[in-house]
Amino acid sequence: MPAPILPLIEAVTHWPERGALVGLDLGTKTIGVAVSNADRRLATGVETLHRKAFKADAARLLSIAGERNAVGFILGLPINMDGSEGPRAQSTRAFARNFSKLTDLTIALWDERLSTAAVERELIGMDVSRARRAEVIDEHAAIFILQGALDRLATLRGER
């Protein structure tokens, strides 16, 4: 049976109280990967995966999840500014559907509007070169997405 694909608020009920979560920022050429600590307080970058074929990409993501003892995934969903879903969101949902057939770990979808733009501004503010920004932008966007979701989960638990 495929893993459930749910909004973050619903997905949290499928995860144990503790355990790392893997955050993903899907791009057409790369996938930014971040992971949380077991207490789900801090997101840290893992890598930028250069996309090859779906099965190879999925195998690497599942390997990362296994290495980190992850209990779930958080996938950035690129929703348009007006709240609608365009081709990128449809592509993300298709990836989630296919990926869910390969794992039993619940996949949460989290609104990632403006995550890449926010990260880009931050890196520019830190005077990171254009070439270096291109290398790290997706991993940093995954951190941004995952940290936003972790902060939301902390608010739901009444911790902030």
Which short descriptors sum up this protein?
six-stranded mixed β-sheet, 160 residues
Helix/strand layout:
Blueprint lengths: L4 E3 H4 L8 E7 L3 E7 L6 E8 L3 H14 L2 E8 L9 H14 L6 E5 L3 H11 L4 H27 L4
Parallel strand pairs: 1-6, 2-5, 5-6
Antiparallel strand pairs: 2-3, 3-4
Helix pairs in contact: 4-5
Question: What this model shows, in words?
Answer:
By secondary structure, the protein is α/β, with parallel strands linked by helices. Helices cover 44% and strands 24% of the residues. The protein has a 6-stranded mixed β-sheet with strand order 1-6-5-2-3-4, with helices on both faces. α3 links the parallel β5 (70-77) and β6. α4 (115-125) crosses α5. The chain starts with a strand and ends with a helix.
Strand arrangement across the biggest beta sheet: 1-6-5-2-3-4
Residue windows where pLDDT falls under 50 for at least 5 positions: none
Number of strands: 6
End-to-end Cα distance: 36 Å
Kindly name the structural category: alpha/beta
Strand proportion? 15-25%
Overall 3D form: globular
Instruction: Report the total helices.
Output: 5
Compact summary:
With 160 residues, this protein is of the alpha/beta class. It has helices at 8-11, 54-67, 87-100, 115-125, 130-156, and strands at residues 5-7, 20-26, 30-36, 43-50, 70-77, 107-111. The chain is built from 5 helices and 6 strands, in the order E-H-E-E-E-H-E-H-E-H-H.
